[in-house]
Amino acid sequence: DFGSSVDKPRQKAKAKHRKLVENATKVMGKACRSKRYVQVVETIDTFRGYSEQTDADWRTLCAHRDGLVADAKRAVSDLAAAATPAEIEDVLAVYAEYGDSVDAERAAAKMRRAELVNSAVQEIRSVLRSAEGESQESILAMLAKFDAAGYPDSDLKDQRDALKCKLSLLSATTAKQIK
């Protein structure tokens, strides 16, 4: 035992340790109120095994992260009922930072998106092949329907082009008949 010669340094070290624990607790508490997934995960990584005095705060933060992941999974899973690809893209963009935590749900949402696009392609093709496709009003309605629903051009470009081409032909035919 070194006696009183180490009392002062020991007290300083204990005070420094207390401050570090208080700061860690404060940072983890703030992260527990955050909805920013990346911030929460980074805080968890920073304070993993930090101090016995912060273990409870760290476990609380881990539970908060788990809650964020559960909420993200629920939101992405809800996309199974999505009506448009744009809706799916918007939600997937919000949860992109969750990485592999929501992979299964993301894959299901992407499948739903593909189903919606395929259904739209089939609907447009069906109209183009039917008597309905001989009506300018029907073609305009079809164009408006998928524009209003927010289908990206990249998904339906060929089908939109076919509708516009058909519309141009019908317009030219109508113009000839009027002359």
Structure in words:
By secondary structure, the protein is mainly alpha-helical. 76% of the residues lie in helices and 0% in strands. It is built from 7 helices and no strands. The chain has helices at residues 7-32, 37-47, 55-77, 85-94, 103-129, 136-148, 153-178. The longest helix is centred in the middle third of the chain and has 27 residues, at 103-129. The chain is rod-shaped, with a radius of gyration of 30 Å. The model has no long low-confidence stretch (mean pLDDT 92).
Tell me what portion of residues adopts beta-strand conformation: under 5%
Shape: rod-shaped
**Sheet with most strands:** none
* Cα distance spanning the termini: 113 Å
DSSP helix fraction: over 70%
Number of helices: 7
Rg (C-alpha, Å): 30 Å
Q: What's the order of the H and E elements?
A: HHHHHHH
Query: Could you say which structural class the secondary elements and strand pairing correspond to?
Result: mainly alpha
| Total number of strands | 0
The chain-level mean pLDDT equals 92
Low-confidence stretches: none
Task: Name a few traits of the molecule.
179 residues, mainly alpha, 0% strand
What secondary-structure arrangement, pairings included, does this model have?
Layout: H1 7-32, H2 37-47, H3 55-77, H4 85-94, H5 103-129, H6 136-148, H7 153-178
